[in-house]
Amino acid sequence: MREKIKLSTLFLFCLMMFFGVTTYTDTIEAKTKLSLSADSAIVMDVDSGAILYKKNMDRKQYPASITKIMTTLVALENSSMNETVTYSRGAVTNLESGASNIGMLPGEKLSMEDSLYAVMLASANEVCNGVAEHVAGSVENFVNMMNERAKSLGCTGTHFANPNGLWLENHYTTAHDMALIAREAYQNPTFAKITGTKRYSLPNTNKRKNLPTMTNHHGMLVASTFSKYVYEHCVGGKTGFTQKCRYTLVTYAKKNGMTLVSVVMRADSPWEASNEYTDSLKLLNYGFENYSHHTIVDDSLKAINQNNLFTRFTTYFDRDTSALSIDDNADVILPKNVGLDQAKKSVEFYDEPKVAEGGKKIIGKITYTYKNQEVGGTNIYYKKSTRATLNDSIDMTEWFDDAVEKAKQGPFPWKKAALIAIVCLVFVMAILLFIQKYRAEREQRARRNRYKRSKKNQRKSEGGVYYRRK
């Protein structure tokens, strides 16, 4: 009876342990499945473009005012900050009721810099129209530029119909596409400065004086209406809302050398317990807690060497004189506890170089992937060195072309070379054995001949003595 009780107790204990372990395992796994109110969401590493978490990231959504990130990017790339924007009547009056604005008047003037601060901080819809007309001649032309820029970034589910994000049925994007746009925008230093500005004062204009100071609408950056959502690592972003689009939010954050961007679309109201701000906080914390950066400068240079483009023993490798270089801040983002050696690395050289800023030519790229997802990389640049090197007295163009061509060739056929080497070695050994045998036989014949001559001479000598004695 006691044995049965012991067995039952042991069975019950094992059963409890099993369910306990199972429950614990499910809890651990559940931590990677974030509970988000947003219909679509994504968090991406700005430096590498690696996607760290996603939820319906390719689902069609209406962006509302986060559209203004693309508006600002296109304006920055096609104008200078000191240009003067004159606002037309159509720009400042063609708005729906309740649309956010700063009260621009027909004929009023602002610099492009002041205008973009109004776009990003105050979400001024009429300013978007004025900027669009100034840059492209008309809102329609500017929208075409926005769509072309989206395509160039690899966006596949985006179509813009206006520069401000006010709802239109044919004005849509995806969380993934919005992350691509936001990442590209943040790599522009002027944009990064504007989006991270908490407050900005507009100067007097030709129409008005003492304009009110603008405060950034992003609740994770500035303690305003939603002060409880302030996030110490937030460095910028853009809010969005219309009744049809619901709540959208783009947020940039920096921590431990990492810069992340999160996008949430069609989220619940910020007055709810779960909303666009709590979603963004979960996404960003997930990225910071589960991923880390790896510097790839040394590893990338090693990769170039392994492809026989140049070696450490030439002036072309020296960092002061080399004509070849990679991105200084190149890095890879990987899950914590995963080493750089676990990422797959590939080196590609272009048939035709691309021209980069500063006169450098992009001749190739190094790409790192982990679990079939790109996690970072760097361009390979070529620029003639300004320092005195062998390049000053010898035309290295032909050498460089040959080096690139050599780098494109397949791996060295070691097996074939080893087989040829073995055959050659056997052939040489056979010749040596033949020579050795030939010499041995010749030496043996010589000894035999010497022996025969000595015997003959001995017989002659013995015969002469015999006859003389007789």
Provide a descriptive summary of the structure in words:
This protein is of the alpha+beta class and 470 residues long. It has helices spanning 2-30, 68-77, 89-93, 112-121, 125-136, 139-152, 175-186, 189-195, 276-290, 297-306, 397-408, 414-469, and strands at 40-45, 51-55, 84-86, 109-111, 199-200, 214-215, 234-242, 246-255, 258-267, 291-295, 324-326, 331-335, 344-355, 361-370, 373-382. A hairpin with a 2-residue loop joins strand 14 and strand 15. Helix 2 packs parallel to helix 7, helix 4 (112-121) packs antiparallel against helix 5 (125-136) and helix 5 packs across helix 6. The chain is elongated. The N and C termini lie far apart (130 Å). Mean pLDDT is 82; it is low at 1-31 and 308-319.
Summarize the structure.
With 470 residues, this protein is an alpha+beta fold. It is built from 12 helices and 15 strands.
Radius of gyration: 38 Å
Helix content: 40-55%
Please state roughly what percent of the residues sit in beta strands, choosing from under 5%, 5-15%, 15-25%, 25-35%, 35-45% or over 45%: 15-25%
Strand order of the largest sheet: 2-1-9-8-7
Oligomer: single chain
